UniProtKB/TrEMBL annotation:
This is DUF1153 domain-containing protein. InterPro entries: DUF1153, Trp_repressor/repl_initiator, WH-like_DNA-bd_sf. It comes from Lichenifustis flavocetrariae. GO terms for molecular function: sequence-specific DNA binding. It comes from the Bacteria.
Amino acid sequence: MTGMQDELALEIVSVATAELFDLLNSLEAELEKLRAAQITWLKPIRRWTDRRKAEVLGAIAAGRVTEAEAIATYGLYVAELNRWRERLGQDGGYVGRCYGRDGSDRMYR
């Protein structure tokens, strides 16, 4: 290789290294955000309300936690998660009840 080729190769390597370093830093920042989000919702659950079930399903759908992690953390069964999905939707779209002043019962999403 000539001196000019060596300089070009060195420049290419340094640019690629800088780009990889920037990518690694951004990935580490995203990982920290995911860990922080996971910590806020991974708490012991005494009573499973529809809202809490929807929160777990939404976290699984968003990729914040795997299905296996949710099952292990909360002592759930796959069949139980599947029943939640049937009732609440794949992404945990919460469906609740709204009672009007007249006592009417309406579903909302």
